[in-house]
Write a structure and sequence with these properties.
Layout (H helix, E strand, L loop, with lengths): L4 H7 L6 E4 L3 H12 L6 E5 L30 H6 L3 E4 L3 E5 L4 E4 L4 E3 L2 E4 L3 E3 L14 E3 L3 H11 L4 E5 L3 H12 L3 E5 L12 H13 L3 E3 L4 E6 L5 E5 L4 E4 L1 E4 L3 E3 L2 H5 L8 E2 L11 E3 L4 E5 L4 E4 L3 H15 L11 E6 L2 E6 L7 E7 L4 E8 L2 E8 L2 H12 L20
Bound molecules: flavin-adenine dinucleotide (FAD).
Length: 419
């Protein structure tokens, strides 16, 4: 028994049984938070993967590079997971939510009653029209799951040439890891710049220069029209302009489709994911959602959006569990995302917008810089490369909306902490 237990009982009457669908990062955090907050009732964790709750960032980095085993991604050691006393339905798929009967139905027909239900179903890799709908058709690969990463890592052991479709974060990290493993890489991106949805043009330029310097061929404003498997297991990719690329494997990195089907079929409000409020509640207050699948109003972005990030999966998973217990929750995170490519650690705090004025500290060409995005004299967002320490101060400036002396901001002799 923990000290928090009476507090939970005082805050709200805990639901009889809590069911979590999705045993990824958000689901894992939700389960352990319920226990941490003193909830001693039944928790059912339904996960269609065979692995215990885990984190995905290493899948495109150390695991893909063959430098770390799959179990390095586990959210907690096996003994700690067992100690939670969670009824983990491993390899089980939730097929339907019956809201009237307050139960989740599994594919095998099992009905699991819930007092509160937390949806942490994440998303799946988007597949373009020209790719078969189902994964597993070699030499086409996606990268979302541990199994995807292990399959692609095995390919990278011998692949000489890779075509990566999509110049977003996953595509670029795959390109980086594949280059480090000695493969030639072509990145095919439909937009006119890399990571167009998430970073301003100057950062796209920096990413382009970085990849080109590493020998990656980046084709912008380009698209795949078709592909053909060859008898030897390789493939021929035909681009929209008629040119062709021969390769050993094609990796699709064109984004994520939220797994909101269960919610939509149950009549919950969805719009590109499951709509939730600051308490992680869906349009049915007994059903909550967290992680990649959840859409919420983000005050830093000024709009409703899904946050596909490690930080959000953890923090919103925690928030949803607390909300399920009736504890106070007001989830309004400053978005934080990072990416590792060729030894560069890039971090983004907040959401840089076109109307922001940018001030830069350090030189991009030197590989270490911090760009601050301001509205007046208040920093609204920051993007830094290999600048972890300064980024921590930048985060504080943003979160506390501190007014700063902008005239001195670009002077790297003055530490951010003194502005
Ligand atoms: C390769 C890769 C690299 C990444 N790198 C970074 C990074 O460097 N930095 C960063 O900030 N973020 C990164 N991310 C993003 C981050 O990992 C995700 O935002 C995070 O994993 C989301 O967690 P989640 O729990 O919402 O979803 P997931 O981790 O996807 O978990 C959802 C789980 O639910 C299961 N599920 C779905 N439907 C059902 C159902 N009906 N029944 C049962 N189970 C179901 C899914 O199979 C899955 O296991 C990366 C993501 C990937 C894929």
């Amino acid at each position: 028994m923990t000290m928090e237990q009476p507090q939970v009982a005082a805050a709200a009457c805990p639901p009889h049984s809590i069911v979590i669908v999705g045993a990824g990062q958000a689901g894992g955090w939700a389960a352990q938070t319920l226990r941490k907050e003193g909830y001693a009732g039944p928790i059912v964790l339904i996960g269609d993967e065979m692995y215990p709750p885990h984190e995905r960032p290493p899948l495109s980095k150390t695991v893909l590079a063959g430098l770390a085993p799959a179990d390095s991604t586990w959210l907690m050691p096996a003994a700690a997971f067992d100690a939670l006393g969670v009824d983990w339905r491993r390899g089980a798929r939730a097929r339907r939510i019956d809201r009237a009967a307050r139960q989740v139905l599994l594919e095998d027909g099992t009905a699991l009653p819930y007092g509160r239900l937390i949806l942490c179903t994440g998303g799946r890799a988007r597949r373009p029209d020209w790719a078969p709908p189902e994964p597993g058709s070699q030499p086409l690969y996606t990268l979302r799951t541990i199994d995807d990463a292990l399959a692609l890592a095995a390919v990278l052991e011998h692949a000489r040439r890779l075509v990566v479709v999509g110049g977003g974060w996953i595509g670029l990290e795959v390109a980086s890891t594949a280059r480090q493993r000695g493969a030639e890489v072509v990145v095919v991106e439909a937009q006119s710049r890399l990571c167009e949805r998430t970073v301003p043009p100057e950062i796209s330029e920096h990413l382009l220069a970085l990849h080109q310097a590493q020998g990656v061929q980046v084709l912008l404003a380009s698209g795949v029209a078709a592909w053909e498997p060859a008898p030897d297991g390789s493939a021929l990719v035909q681009l929209a302009d008629g040119s062709t690329l021969a390769c050993d494997a094609i990796v699709l990195g064109i984004g994520l489709v939220p797994n909101d089907d269960l919610a939509r079929e149950a009549g919950l409000a969805c719009d590109g994911g499951v709509l939730v409020d600051g308490q992680c509640r869906t349009s049915d207050p007994d059903i909550l959602a967290a992680g990649d699948v959840a859409v919420s109003l983000n005050p830093w972005a000024g709009r409703r959006m899904r946050l596909e990030s490690w930080q959000n999966a953890q923090e919103q998973g925690i928030a949803a569990a607390r909300a399920a217990l009736g504890l106070a929750v007001d989830y309004q995170p400053l978005p934080w995302f990072w990416s590792d490519q060729y030894g560069m650690n890039l971090q983004i705090y907040g959401m840089p917008r076109q109307e922001h004025r940018a001030v830069q500290r350090g030189e991009m060409a030197e590989g270490r810089f911090l760009r601050l995005y301001l509205e007046g004299d208040v920093v609204q967002a920051a993007i830094g490369a290999n600048a972890g320490r300064e980024l921590r101060f930048a985060r504080r400036l943003i979160e506390q909306r501190i007014h700063i002396d902008t005239a001195r901001l670009a002077d790297t002799d003055i530490p951010l902490s003194q502005l």
